[in-house]
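Problem: given the chain below (1019 residues), write out its structure.
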Amino acid sequence: MKKLLGASLCIWGICVVQTAIAQEKKSIKGIVKDEQGAIIPGVTVGIKHSGTGTVTGPDGSFHLNAAEKDTLVFSFVGYNKKEIAVNNQTDLKVKLASSATSLNETVVVGYGVQKKINLSGAVTSVNFDKTMQSRPVTDLSTALSGMAPGVSVSQASGQPGRENATIRIRGVGTLNNADPFILVDGIESSMSDVNMADVESISVLKDASAAAIYGSRAANGVVLITTKKGRKGKATVSYNGYYGVQKATRLFNVVSDYATYMQLMNRVATADNPSNTPPFKQATIDAWKNATDRTLYPNTDWMDVLFGQGKLTGHTVSVSGGSEKNSYYMSLDYLHNDGIVKNTSQDRYMMRLNADQEISKKIKVGANIALTWKERREPQDVGSILSLAGSTTPGMTPKVVDASGTRYGGRNTDDENGQLDNPLQYVETWSRPNRQQRAFAKVWGEWNIIDGLKLQVNGAGDYFNMGQKSYALAGAIQNRWNFQKNVVAQQLDQQPATLAQLDSTNLHLTYFATLNYNKNFGADHHINVLAGMSTESIRGTLFTGSIQNFPTNNTWELGAGLEQPKVGGTSDIYKIVSYFGRINYDYKGKYLLEANLRRDGSSKFRSGLQYGVYPSFSAAWRLIEEPFIKNAIPGWVNNLKLRASWGKLGNDRIPLNAFMSLYSAGVNYNYGGTISAGLAPLVMANPNITWEKTTTSNLGLDANLFNDHFNLTFDVFNRRTSDILVRLNLSSAYGGLTPPFQNVGIVENKGWELTLGYNNKAGDFRYGISGNVSNINNKVVKYQGNAIGTLNGASVLKEGWSIGTLYGLQTAGIFQNDDEVKAWAKQRTAGTNKPGDLKFVDMTGDHVVDGNDRINMGNTIPKWYYGLNLNAGYKGFDLALLFQGVGGVNRYYQDNWYTTGIRAGREINADFLNAWTPDNANTNIPRLTAAANTDNTQANTFWVQNASFVRLKNIQLSYTLPKKMFTSTISSIRVYVNAQNAFTWTKFKGLDPEVSDYTQPGIQYPNVRVITGGVNVIF
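Solution.
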């Protein structure tokens, strides 16, 4: 028995030794990089079928012990998993390929970048593909339309040089400046001075957790623009050029037949008072009906006179390249834009240079330089000219050029109002040239102190100068002629030539430094800590001067004027100092935590109230990484993440020195019988004003499905701004004093956002669809109790309603006869209504319709925002469509171009040809009345229009030529045709439903439809 036991132990011992020899582990080291050769920290390196492993360090290296027969598994979010057999290897160089997943995208955030999969805040990254970059947009701000959920982009004008859009992120959060914080390469700047082709990426930070690192500057959201950098390797040259034509998206439909116009005027005069004498004689009407010479008897459509076809051409050349230790990107851009109104145009030149240089393995420096020069030409205020254009008639000849020279028309019949405006005269004899120059320079340095610890310093200067002249010609050219009688109809020579000039400069200096520590602790814990400080100063100067009476119409300099010289000027300075920090922590890439803290000090508040502290917190849970969830859901779910955040932000966007009393100089006083110069108070002081405060909470869900072909993002948010700075009305006892700001208002925006996208391909056919929809409800929580504040026209501020809610009387149809008038509540303070007038509802039931019967007529802030992108491609062909729209919005629309209040010398909208008459009672349009009869034109629901719209914002068809068709020196040739603002579906009857301020009833330069053709060549 002992011999048997001994033999067994011997055999067992031999087997153990052999197994130990076979499984003897050896030291394995290596480094992991991506396809471009960049190191990848945080990669999980595990032994297959084993619970042991490690992660790569900040330098991408790893070390572990493994047996020769083991297989190592390398995995990291956003990269394809890779397996490598150990065999006899001891030093591995591993390259991971990026997986076809949007989770691998790098998203620019405050003072850094993050993988999309690691985000815990509400951040939207705009895709700048080749279609986006070749869109012929004249201002970068307009390119965001429909591209991001919760982001409203409204381009109110198509005028060259004034196309910059109004951007609102998650509603209107304040009664003051609600613009987002715009940063270009980390420095506050203007989107209007960035060329579309230079943009690498745009990120929109929407909730407090994402934006709080910018503190008081981020209360209205943040837009981060990153421009292109050079790429190592052979230099690449790219050219993009296009030519296009443009016309107004819509113009007014006016009564251009003067005989019809005169008949309407006669009808109005006798309808108001049957004893009135019709202003136009029947002989005059008949003469126009029978005339053939339309110079003497014109039927002028002023839309055809004022608006035509504009031209657009653009050229961009860029060069990119670099070596192992440096890279560079440089671009030159030229844009010429001829507007659809005569004498409106702009020339724009841009240059950008981004470069970086590796000084050593630890130190890197770089610079970003951008220069912009713009020259805009316009006939003074185009909006005012268009308003004046409503004060004319189709019976006026615009202009005659003959042997007598250039003559502008006035009235051609003595029956007409003698004080007509000739808008073409203003367009051609007024001028306001505007020159803008911007020089932007940023230098930066980066020092990798030790592994994971990096210091970065940045300094930037942004210099902006604008010079402008406004002048009006003098002399006989300003007379207005009656061409029938060949005499002057209006003598305007008494108006001397006038020049007004201004010159303003703005110097914005920025300095900020950040210290960043990025460290993995074992295989499960990762921490990223950021600390920094920044200082900014903005110095502005303004000079103004004017003078009259010039010897000629060709000498427009202040020194050439002869009479009434005036000068003025001012300067100001604004400073802000900030300290900030951020901590990111994740456990196994499963639980993500982030905390931000920023302290800002602003010179807009007095000492003791200058500083505000703004914290934020966010967390995310990647459910897909939980085994009990991953095993319970289908395999086609690739990513599932929950996000939650809360934070507080600030806002100081009010005028400088608002906490102080302000005085006006140049006021004379009688002191002891002597006239003495003095000061007069302008603005009352309130030294206790301080920051507006915005608190935001957000819940979000991200999902990627079907091998990342389908993605979904859903967010619910609540944004509440308190201590809003408001100027409340003063008692009349204070005279004309401007009231002080007070921290009294509260505004709330609640809503949700949904983004869906699907992309796939079948052979050579590629296709994709992505859409976003947002619902935002705006409410004034606190203003001034039950008092109602007036904004513009019929829009008001009232607690419980949205900002700019329309306020007026409810209509109930049209009076058809005198009996209905008698039976209705009394509406007019003097006299009685007539058949054809609007009925107003007596809401109080006191049988009198007055101001107490006014109601909420609708909101001027949209409740719904939409965006839809469609794209398809087959081999070299690509088609892309972008739709944009808003819903649930109203606008009060009544002005010179759209009213039933008629007076002599005013255009009549053709819609009102269907106005009520005894013979045309089946209509919803009230009778035409004299302009002085304000009953029908007071604020009421008849004038409230649905301003919702859907617009095909952009459509582009392109073709990339096969490589075999051109020489080897050319890498790619792509030709395309593009249509901007192609089609619009709306019920709104004004020039364009896309406006920046729905409370404004006025007229603006129309938006334009642009058709272009272009080519993109890469060498």
